[in-house]
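Sample pair:
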Amino acid sequence: MTAAIEQSAIERRERTAAAGLANNLGVSDLLLLRIAIGGATRADLQRDVAPLLAPRVSGTEFRRAAEFGLSTLSTSQLITEAKGRLSATAKGLNAAEALLAPARVFPETWAEVKTALVLASLGASDTPGTRKAIQRAEGLAALVLQHHFGKPTSRVLSPADLRAQLAIIALERAFGNKIKTGLGKGSGLPAKAGRLLAGQLFKQPREIASDGKLVIGLACEITGCREASLPALELALLRALMLPRDESAPQPTSPARAEVQRRPVRTSTPKPANDRTPLSEKQPSLFDVVSPPDMPEFCQAVVDAARPVAEGWPGNRKAFISLVWKAIRNARPDWGLSEIAFKGMLAEAHRSGQLELATADLKDGRDLRSLEDSKILYKNTVWHFVRVQD
């Protein structure tokens, strides 16, 4: 199980680096990048990383996902923890650098990491001139528009030059891409006429008073940014890089189970009366329902599944986590839990005192395969069993 988690995380990081950050980043990737900048505490991670995942991930859900992500990174030997401070190993630093492959050198501050992520997401050259240009809202907005409309991003265009380009794009859309490129010159269209044409690119066409406001307004509409400012535009671009839910994070659970929308599935064709197939053939259900459990229901099901496979003497009976997972997977397919999500919920249940996990004596080599499949790494402790209270 440890090898599978490590391989999955490494493969995702390699895909992200190879695609120049075209793929989304997960929670573990963000945690690794932040920790690689001189180390971090959990409070640092909450302050710096959580805003990039909001509002899709609440603070409580982020803490749960972060703990699981840190466990994955620790299992993969990418980070270490000492006295509450997390640090990246040499292997972790290499993985972090791979995530920012387009950057010139690995950044020294979290602000520089975010800038590198923005540049990579826009396919822009990481040069001093580009970095200086995107320190202004107009410069970053111009780069957003150049990337969105398929223009070169080797340098950041001025608002006036970009306005002329946008006017040509609007004309090409209106007249079937038959406009001569000569109109893109500075003398081709007056500034007011160019802004009027470029304003047709908004979802609701409008006339803008200046080139700067035109560029910023159109960039905000494209990125879904509600505030025409540099920090808001940068945050919108960074949030667009993030996965709605990290593959390696446990499924979030809510205290009250939400109403599940049921979708009817198509029933099979009725069989003729003389059909000879066995009557025991599985019949399709009226509804396919995926309904993740709340924590009390989950804990009760885990205890019920652990009791038949638990070993030991009364008062000290324990069941392999891998065996409990197999029982839950077969008994409750409607929960839609993956093994990673199941183990994440087990760790959270143990942390909150609703379940008790136990670790194995490493000298006991009776069933190494079950020990390995059952492993859950949580805060420098490895759990292997669910304890059953008789």
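The domain at 289-388 is CATH 1.10.10 (Arc Repressor Mutant, subunit A).
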